[in-house]
Amino acid sequence: MKNTPPPNTADNKSDPPKNDAGRVSMLWATIEHAEELANCHKSLFDPPWDQASFEQFLAHPGSTALIARTGNPQETVGFIVGQLAADEAEILTFGVRKDWQRLGLGRRLVEGLKRAAQRGEAKKLFLEVADDNMPALVLYSRLGFKDVGRRQAYYKRADGKTADALVLSLTL
Ligand SMILES: CC(C)(COP(=O)(O)OP(=O)(O)OC[C@H]1O[C@@H](n2cnc3c(N)ncnc32)[C@H](O)[C@@H]1OP(=O)(O)O)[C@@H](O)C(=O)NCCC(=O)NCCS
């Protein structure tokens, strides 16, 4: 007799549907998105940036920010905020909501900001990253960023510990 598995075994129970990165749009963020940005940031960073901080950054003439949006109603599932000054650009904050990670959105956000920096005639793109942030370090390395410096005990963690920041740079 054929060994047919009963319903709801590991063999046939359906996995929850995977989020569809193909339905995510990358849009330029404006001050109106500050609250959504703060909510998304809060889920990823401690301490988080509040709405007022995002409003302040987005009001700055050199700021460039992209948000990854999807769904109906639309929600923000990722963001990147950068700053352009003279011929240098910097990534100030960047993240993808946990349930949307490993789907290529981080790469798309960095590449979008990189194109914006190139259009602004920046020659280098800089960022700081904690030296123990493996996912981000792998992503930046894949995108060609190089290690150009270290800031000792730059990040203060909620548990009182500190982490060094690596300064990375990409030639545009
Ligand atoms: C870092 C971060 C933005 C990456 O976003 P993401 O959407 O998951 O990244 P992507 O799906 O575009 O990943 C691109 C590549 O980066 C690497 N990568 C990303 N996350 C990784 C992980 N957890 N482990 C190993 N490699 C990883 C992989 O090479 C991946 O390609 P692959 O999935 O084909 O193997 C996300 O992990 C995050 O929001 N982390 C918390 C906030 C943060 O640390 N921000 C950066 C501060 S400097």
Sum up the structure in keywords.
alpha+beta, Aminopeptidase, binds coenzyme A
Structure at a glance:
The chain is 24% helix and 35% strand.
The percent range for strand residues is 25-35%
What is the class in the CATH system?
Alpha Beta
What composes the largest sheet?
A: 7 strands, mixed
So, CATH architecture? 3-Layer(aba) Sandwich
The rough form would be described as globular
Protein described:
The protein has one domain (22-171): Aminopeptidase (3-Layer(aba) Sandwich), CATH 3.40.630.30. The chain contains 4 helices and 7 strands. The protein has helices at 34-42, 51-59, 105-119, 134-142; strands at 25-28, 63-70, 75-85, 88-96, 124-130, 146-156, 162-171. The chain has a 7-stranded mixed beta sheet with strand order 1-2-3-4-5-7-6, with helices on both faces. The termini are far apart. Mean pLDDT is 91; it is low at 3-12. The protein binds coenzyme A (COA). Coenzyme A binds at residues 44, 94-96, 101-107, 129, 133-136, 138-139, 142. Residues 44, 94-96, 101-107, 129, 133-136, 138-139, 142 line the site of coenzyme A.
